[in-house]
Predict the 3D structure of the following.
Amino acid sequence: MDRRVIKNRQDFYGGLIFLAFGLFGLTFGTGYALGSISRMGPGYLPVVLSAALSAVGAFLSFRALVFGESRIEPCRWRPLVFILGSILAFAAAISRGGVVLAVFLVAFLSAFGNRHARWAEALLMAVFMAGLTVLLFVKLLGLPFSVWPR
Amino acid sequence: MIENIFQALGLGFSAVTTPENLLFCLIGTLLGTLIGVLPGIGPVATIAMLLPISFGLKPLSALIMLAGIYYGAQYGGSTTSILINLPGEASSVATCLDGYQMALRGRGGAALAVAALGSFFAGCVGTLLIALFAPSLASFSQQFSSPEYFSLMVLGLISAIVLAHGSVIKAVAMIWVGLFLGLIGTDVNTGVARFTFEIPELADGIGFVPVAVGLFGLSEIILNLEREQERRLVSSKISGLWPTAKDLRDSWAAVVRGTLLGSVLGVLPGGGGVIASFASYTVEKRLAKDPSRFGKGAIEGVAGPESANNAAAQTSFIPLLTLGIPSNAVMALMMGAMIIQGIAPGPNVIQDHPQLFWGIITSMWVGNLMLVVTNLPLVGVWVSLLRVPYRLLFPAILVFCCIGVYSLNSSAFEVGCTIFFGLLGYGFAKTGCDPAPLLLGFVLGPLMEESLRRAMLISRGDPMVFIHRPISAVLLIASVLLLVVLILPAIRKKREEAFQE
C-alpha cells in the first residue's frame, strides 16, 4: 500500500475491521439454517448482519481511497505488547499457579508498558498488589481463589 | 396518587436505611467519586470490574452500590474538571470550560460548591421525577408486545448514534458489530451453537464483562501510556469553599434549567450525562445577558451543566426500570447486574419487587446527600489522589480488571477474551470508532433477535406489523426522524462542534 494512495486512513482501516467481521460471519454463518422471514432460523440474523457489515466495511474503505483526509496516531508497540502480554500471563497462571503468582505477573509485567519503568519500583508494586489481593479478595470478600501454586 | 408515591418512597427508605445498605451506598458513591477524579478509568469499566464482586451481595445492596458508582462519578468528574482542567468523565467536559477559568481566578472553591449543590438539587428532582413517572410508564408498557419492543430497541440504538463520537456511518456499523457479537452462542429457539467453534465457554455467548472491560478499560490504559500525558496540578490551594450570595443568585436559575433539561434528555433512549451537560452549557450561553463572560469563569457555565449531567444520570434509570431497555452503556451494565441477580428488568419490577424498585430510587437521594456531605470536605483528599503517578496507578487497575473478569466464572478463557476486546478497542480508537454503540448493540442483540422473530412469527412474515400497530409505528417514526435529523448537514456540524469542545 502506497502511503499516498490512502487519503482517509481512519476510515480505511476502520472499514477493514468491519469487513473482517462481515466476512467472518459470512464464512461461518452460512452453515446454519437460514429459515424464512416468518420462521427465522439460527443463521438468518447473523447472515443479514454479516452481509451488511461487509457492505459497509467495503464502502468505507473504498470511499476512504478517494474522499476525506485523516491520519492515524502513531502506534507504539511497547504499551500494547506489555499490557496485553501481562493479562495473557495472568490468564495462563491463574488456574494452576494461584492468585499470588498471577497478580504478581500482571502487575510486574504491565509496569514495563511505561517507557520510564523502574525495576525496583515495579517489583515492589507487584508484591504489594499480590498481598493486597489476597487480603482484600480472598480474606475479606472470600472469593474462591487458590492462593498458592498447585 | 401523591399519597401512594409517598407511601412507596417510605417503603424505599425503610429498605435503604439498613446499616448494610447505607454502607454499600457509601462505598459506591466514594468509589464513583474516586474513579470520577481519576482520568483513564470511567464508570463503565469500573462497574464492569465490580459486577462479579457484587454477586455475593443481596440484589438491592448490589444495585445500590453500582448505581452509586455511576452518579458518584459525575461528582468526581467535576472536581478534576474545575481544579486541573482535566475531565475525569466525558460528561464533565462542559464543566472544564468555565470551572477551570474560575479556579484560575482563585474561585475554585465557589465553583466546586456550586457544582455540588447544583448536582444535589438535580439529584433530588431526578429522584422525585422517577417516583412520579416510572409507575405510570411501567403500566403503559404493559401493553407492549414483541413488535413494540423491537421498535423501541431500534429507537434506542439509533439514539446511541447521536451520542457516539465520529461519523454516523461508523456508529451504525459499530451497532451491527455489537448485535453480531451478541448473537454468538447457543440459539435459544433451536439450540444450535453459533460461531462457538466447539469452545464450551462460548456456548452461553461471549461474556458481557470481558467485552466491557476490554473495550473500555484495557484499550484506554494502552492509549494513555502511548500518549504519556503529564498531569499538572494548577490550583492545589482551595480558599473559600463557600460561594457568595451573589454566586447563588447568579446560578440558581441555571441549576433549575439544567435540572429540567437533564431530566428530559436522560429519559430519552441514548440520552445521558454527556449530551445533557453540553445542551445545558449551550442554553446558558444563549440566555446570558453577556455571553462573552462564558469561557472566562461564568458561574452559570458550571452550575447548569453539572446539574444537567446529574439529573440525566438519575432519570436514565427510568427506561431500564420500566421498559427493561438500557439507554446507555452504564445502564446496559446495570441490566446485566439485575439479570445476574435473578431479576428481569422491565415493567414487572415495580410489582414483583417493590422494595427493590423503590429502594434503588430512594438510595439515589440518600447517595446524593452522602456525596454533598462527603465531597466538599474531602476535596483536598481527592485532589491529593491525583498526585499518585499514573505509572503506579495503571498496574493496580489492571489487577482489578483481571480479578474482576476471572472471578465471574473462574474462567481463564474469559480473561483471554478481554485481551481480544482490548486489542479490538485499541483498533477502534485508532480508527475513530466509538465503542459505546457496540456495547449497547451487544446487550440488545439477543433481545432484538427474540422479539423480531416472535413479531415475524405472529404476523406470518409481514413486516408491516411494525407499522400497523400504533405504538410501534410512533416509535419507528421517531427513529426515522432522528436519523434524518442526524444526517442533515447543519445539525451534523453542530454535533461535531459539541464533541470538539
Q: What stands out?
A: DSSP finds four helices and no strands in chain A. The helical segments of chain A are 9-29, 44-66, 77-111, 119-140. The longest helix of chain A spans residues 77-111. Chain A touches chain B through 72 residues (CB under 8 Å).
